[in-house]
Each structure stands twice: as structure tokens, then as C-alpha cells.
Design goal:
- With 326 residues, this protein is an alpha+beta fold.
- The chain has one domain.
- The protein has helices at 37-46, 48-53, 127-130, 136-145, 207-214, 222-241, 281-285, 288-296, 298-301, 307-313, and strands spanning 3-5, 12-25, 65-73, 76-87, 92-108, 112-120, 150-160, 176-179, 182-185, 194-204, 244-246, 271-278.
- It is globular, with a radius of gyration of 20 Å.
Length: 326
Amino acid sequence: MDFTELKIARGSGNFHVNQFRIHFSVPGLQGDPQKQLPVLVAEFTKDFPKFFNGLGKNMQENQASVAWSTRQFEQTRTLRFLLDVKLAALGINLPDFHSDWVHVLWQDPNKGFAAQTLKRNFSEGLEKPLSILPLSALSVLIQYNAYHFLAGRRSWVFGLLQPGMPGWNAGSLQVGKVESGKFTPYSGGPTPVFYLESSAVERSSLLLFKLMEVDPGIFVDIRETIISLWSNLLANYVHAKGFRLNVGHPKTYGTDDGASLWSTQPEWRGVYRRKAEFETPRELNAKKWVQYLLDLHPALKSQPLTETAFKGMGGRSGGGGASGEW
């Protein structure tokens, strides 16, 4: 088999939860906005590499690249993320040396899709000629290089800001924009506001990668890279589509015990994010904001966090009862 799933239950270190969200409206939208969701989901999924890579008009180039692959895992599609490995301490740069693979394990045409991290069981790129050299340290590096940095799942979902969302606490949501510190509501009737969110529940796949978080100068700062990659993706999508960015803060329509964790940066205007790490699944599940996040992402909610839970699931993995087939 080309791949092996990297279950979060068999990963290393603390559990990480991160959530990225952007709000937007579609100019000229007529009729029921719910009917627009399948259109948004289909195009985002099809052109996911374009929005992630950020090489087109009105987009920012990302630190990594991705492409849909012809390889499959248990009849599901895979994505190949390509990273540069930089050994700063040794002054070595190995371009295109490390790839991270995931497979689509859940999708909903009205909501989005989710992916599970993988270890590849085949050689690629520079590994093939290097693998014949009699260097034990190099062979170990090649072995580790086959692993995705993370064990776990990431999910991308669309939705409408409206009552019924997990954590909703807004009697009426005023929709508008902020320019020079001043809020201006949009004219006319209520403007439907959509959100695109990328969230993950994961941990390091190996002890080596966990140690890299302690000293990120060895290869790459994984946690900072995560912020950059997914903030860029969300911003690129809204800008490339020509949608109207809405900078309303999530705290204006939702309250929970993680409201103070939301943050944003000027270079990714309108992208809000929050993250936390937990030593145990019990601590993770005790947070109301994490429960709200899981309610939005079926594939994350169904992910077993311990070996005991994993053994009790039975059958193939999947989110919210989905088959994972594309």
C-alpha cells in the first residue's frame, strides 16, 4: 500500500487545536443564500491548489505548494503538499525534499471536506539516488522524511452567519465594513454573510517533530508555518474570487470560553484565528469553544483521540458517517 494513516492517537506530544475563519459576502447574490453553498464548496475543492499556492491575480504566494495527486488511499483522493527543508544550523537548503501527504476522508457538497495525514511508503525525489549511499544517518533521515509532520485531521467548511450556529449569541448581526477605524453598515436589505473556516485537531506524528517545536531552528517552525499557510489560503480565496471581505469579529456573534483567544494580523486582514494545546483529550473536550468547533467539523468530531476509542470504532475511518469516497 502506498500510504499509512497517521492516527492522532498514535502521535507524540500535546494535542493541538487551531481554528481559522474569514467572513465574506457575494456581490449581486440573488435568492436563497443556502443554494450558493454547493457552488462555493465545489469550486473551492476543485481549485484548492490554486487558492493555496497563491500564484494568481490578487493572491499572495504561500510558503508551500500543493497539488491533487493521482495516487489514492483506500479509494480516496490525496493531496501532496511540498515543503523546503532548511537545515539552518548547517547552512543546507534541500528544496522540494519534503512532501506532506493527506487523503480526503470526508466531504459534504453543502459544507466542505476534511483530510487525514499520511505516511508515504514509497521513495520520491532526491530520496531515490540518496538511498543507495552507505550513510546510516542519511538513511534514518530519509525514513523520517516519509512522515507527515503531523498526525491528525484538518477540515475546511463553509456556512452562513445565522442563528443556530454553535455558540451563537447575537440578537441581530449588523453587517458592514471597517475603514480607518470607522464602521459603515452596508446599505439596502440584510446582506448574507458567509464564512470559510479551516480547523484542525492534531499533534506531532513523531517525537523528532515534537522536539522541532522546542527548537524550530533545526528545520522549520511548524507552528508559525501553520498560521501562515492557512491564513494565506483563506485570504487568497476571498480576494481571488472578488468577494466582499467582511471584517466583523467572531466575538460579535458568538460567546464561549475561548473568546479571548481570537487574534488577527494586518497582513491577513479579516482572517481570525485561535489556537490552544492540551495535554489530554479530557482537557481538550472540557472546553466549550472546542466543542463548538467540533460541531462545525464532523470529521474532527468523529476522530478518536485515544487508542481505546480507536479500537472501539470499528470499520473504516471517516467523518460523520461519510465514506470518504470522492
